[in-house]
Design goal:
Number of strands of chain A: 17
CATH topology of the largest domain in chain A: Beta-Lactamase
Strand content of chain A: 15-25%
Number of domains of chain A: 5
CATH class of the largest domain in chain A: Alpha Beta
Number of strands of chain B: 5
Helix content of chain B: 40-55%
CATH superfamily of chain B: Response regulator
Low-confidence stretches of chain A: 139-144
Radius of gyration of chain A: 69 Å
Oligomer: heterodimer
CATH superfamily of the largest domain in chain A: PAS domain
Distance between the termini of chain A: 88 Å
CATH class of chain B: Alpha Beta
Number of helices of chain A: 14
Order of helices and strands of chain B: EHEHEHEHEHH
């Protein structure tokens, strides 16, 4: 029930009852006062007339009594006046028909007052005893009348004088007074009611504001600002309420917001309730499973998976009890029975008191990933097969190609040895060329194998002292051609991070090249060192003052079988720098060269 | 390099290489009897007196085995494994003489107990040099293990 109605239902009956009670009490008092006044004036009137009437009573003469009675009636506007003897018989009466009747009502020594109806008119009747002439003075008479004491025994009661006054005027006065009282009470009541209503309204207005605010919050909108209408406790309440709403906005996200996030996550998301049945499935979930929301909501989580439902559900619950499920590979079952490979994760949801509230699960569809994986695997298998083939090829090259070459070289040599004398000079020269050709081809085969090996061998990086390797390379070069005069300067502490075997091959080629192309210099000088480039990266270099090359052909420098010098000038296979470049690239580095013909060449590389 | 009468077993399928090796031996005056086996199976039959060599006196074992790796039927590494796992032959010096310088072949050969690994040079002069050094070392300089029978 509304507070206003509650007030009214209590206030109105109480007010009405109070008003009635007030009216009743006032009416009684007014009535009593009026009747009392009337009785008093009637008693005085009767007593005043009693003295004059004494002779009439003594003689019991109607003739004497009637004029007195009539004068009382006339003068005082009494309805009637009567004289009764001691025994109550009517001696005289202004209304003649009453004469001779025995009066009703007790007749005592004092004045008596009673109410009656006379000829359908309410009447107040006063009866006053009349005494013999030895009556006490009128002051004393008034005294006993007032006190109600018994008169002195010496007197003799002659009878009673009775006066009937109409109550009609008195009642009219009473009515008038009552009417006024009703008006006053009504006015007071109405004023009180208005006052109460205003008061209730003053309380209800802020309360209604609060109610509207609470309603907004219930609908999930926390941006509530209730007007502060007063500076009292209700105002404080509204202020606190607004503060609470601000806190809520800061500390809480709305349900809509959270639902929006879940719905729009691009992977399937499921939320299960405490009983393990699905409560929420987002759009991605429905699309992946090809099911509608109605087909999933309320069903157990196990319906998502392939396998015996009870076992799956039991396993899920057991796993979740032990902790979150992370990245488990599962198969989701679609509506049409298709299996979708997925990575499944789930964690239990608990409320603030740590009670189990169900779980939230995410299942990432990895169909694409699987396919890519499969493609990668087959590509890897293919690559491995190629690699195996390449290895077999390398093996054949190293073994099978060399064998016939050895035959050609060997038997040419044997012919030269056994029948050289019988041959002419040019035939001998041709056979020597055959032998030289086989030697070069043997080196080519070895270089190609090396080139393929630097690509194939497994690389292990560790810190390498390039200075030490470079010095070793220089030493073996000197040993191979002790007659060469060449200065080889290797800087100390050339530290690098790389594969020691591969880096050795690179330096063998680079320093070997420098050695070869400075072969015609009398003041040959080879320098191996390093510097920091602008970006702070270590750059190594191998510098010589040899034949150099034309920078116009620098693009060809690192290509396999590419040569910038004639075989007659400097022998070589054209594979060495290709091998070096492959090694540097495997280290993630760069190699380049600077040169000018006749002034030497410098090869730079980073690792 | 004279008066060497120990038997040399050359396991070689390539006729060219066989002839070149024989010539190289001759050139160095190595008079040792040279037994040629043209594939791995023949080499094993010879060593253990089986197949075509059934009844051979297996008490006579080669003083040196020159073994190619790439062989028909049974390859060189398998031959080496069998030699090393038989009490009669496990102490015989085996020199791998091959064209391959693949790391993997080197590692496998030494793992299986090869005494030496020599790569055949393409150049005949170098080849003769290599064979000369081999002969000198294994047939003259090296002291072979006593025969299993004699030791017992």
């Amino acid at each position: 029930m509304k507070l206003r109605n509650k007030f009214m239902s209590l206030l109105l009956p109480a007010g009405a009852l109070t008003a009635l009670l007030i009216l009743f009490l006032i009416r009684r008092s007014v009535h009593a006062v009026i009747v009392d006044q009337l009785a008093k004036s009637a008693t005085l009137l009767a007593e005043a007339a009693a003295a004059d009437a004494t002779p009439g009573f003594e003689s019991r003469s109607e003739t004497l009594l009637l004029p007195i009675l009539q004068s009382i009636q006339k003068r005082e506007g009494a309805l009637y006046a009567a004289a009764l003897d001691s025994s109550g018989r009517t001696l005289a009466h202004t209304t003649i028909t009453e004469k001779g009747k025995i009066a009703e009502g007790a007749l005592g020594d004092g004045p008596a007052v009673r109410m009656l109806d006379f000829r359908d008119e309410p009447v107040l009747e006063v009866s006053v005893p009349v005494w013999s002439l030895q009556a006490p003075p009128s002051g004393a008479g008034l005294g006993f009348l007032m006190s109600g004491e018994a008169p002195p025994l010496s007197r003799r009661r002659l009878g009673f004088l009775r006066v009937g006054l109409s109550l009609q005027p008195a009642l009219r006065t009473e009515e008038r007074i009552l009417r006024d009282v009703i008006l006053i009470v009504g006015a007071i009541g109405a004023a009180a009611l208005l006052l109460v209503l205003a008061l209730v309204g003053g309380i209800l207005r802020p309360v209604n504001g609060l109610m509207e605010g609470i309603d907004r919050i219930r609908r999930g909108r926390y941006d509530v600002d209730v007007p502060i209408l007063s500076d009292d406790e209700l105002g404080d309440l509204a202020r606190s309420f607004n503060d609470m709403c601000r806190e809520l906005v800061l500390s809480t996200v709305s349900k809509e917001y959270v639902e929006g996030i879940i719905e729009n996550i691009s992977d399937p998301v499921f939320v299960a309730g405490a009983g393990g049945s699905i409560e929420t499935a987002n759009r991605a979930a429905l699309e992946t499973l090809g099911r509608s929301g109605a087909e999933l909501i309320g069903r157990p989580l196990s319906v998502l998976f392939d396998g015996a439902q009870d076992a799956v559900q039991g396993e899920l619950e057991a796993s979740l009890a032990a902790g979150p499920i992370r990245d488990r590979k599962v198969n989701l079952k679609t509506k049409d029975g298709r299996l979708v490979p997925a990575i499944f994760s789930a964690s239990a949801l608990a409320d603030l008191r740590d009670r189990q509230q169900g779980c939230v699960c995410i299942a990432k569809d990895i169909t694409e990933l699987k396919r890519t994986e499969e493609e990668l695997r087959s590509a890897k298998t293919a690559a491995e097969a190629v690699s195996k083939e390449l290895e077999a090829f390398s093996y054949s090259v190293s073994h099978d190609l060399r064998a016939p070459l050895r035959g050609i070289a060997g038997f040419s040599q044997i012919v030269l040895e056994d029948a050289g004398a019988a041959l002419d000079a040019s035939s001998r020269e041709h056979l020597v060329r055959v032998v030289d050709g086989t030697k070069l081809m043997g080196r080519l085969i070895d270089d190609i194998l090396e080139l393929s090996r630097v690509s194939r061998t497994e690389m292990t990086r560790r810190s390498v002292d390039l200075s030490e390797i470079a010095r070793g390379v220089a030493a073996s070069l000197r040993e191979a051609s002790p007659s060469r005069r060449a200065e080889v300067v290797v800087a100390d502490g050339l530290a690098a991070d790389g594969d020691p075997n591969l880096l050795r091959v690179a330096l063998v080629n680079l320093i070997g090249n420098a050695w070869k192309y400075t072969g015609r210099k009398t003041d040959a000088r080879i320098e191996v060192g390093s510097f920091l480039d602008g970006a702070g990266a270590r750059t190594f270099f191998v510098k010589d003052n040899g034949a150099g090359f034309d920078m116009a052909y620098s693009a060809k420098l690192f290509g396999a079988f590419q040569r910038l010098h004639a075989q007659a000038e400097f022998d070589g296979t054209g594979v060495g720098l290709a091998t070096v470049q492959r090694i540097i690239r495997r280290h993630g580095g760069k190699i380049w060269a600077e040169s000018s013909v006749g002034y030497g060449a410098t090869f730079y590389f980073t690792l | 390099m004279q008066n060497i009468d120990g038997l040399i077993l050359l396991v070689e399928d390539n006729k060219n290489d066989e002839d070149l090796t024989v010539r190289a031996f001759k050139k160095n005056n190595l008079k040792n009897e040279l037994k040629i086996a043209r594939d791995g199976a023949e080499a094993l039959d010879f060593l253990f007196g089986e197949g075509a060599y059934a009844g051979r006196d297996t008490g006579v074992m080669p003083q040196l085995i020159l073994l190619d790796l790439k062989l028909p039927k049974v390859d060189g590494l398998e031959v080496l494994r069998r030699i090393r796992s038989d009490a009669r032959t496990k102490l015989l010096p085996v020199v791998v003489l091959t064209s391959s310088k693949e790391e993997q072949d080197l590692v496998s050969s030494y793992s299986l107990g090869a005494n030496s690994y020599v790569r055949k040079p393409v150049d005949f002069t170098e080849f003769v040099g290599a064979v000369t050094q081999l002969g000198c070392y294994w047939l003259v300089l090296n002291q072979a293990a006593p025969k299993p029978g004699a030791a017992a």
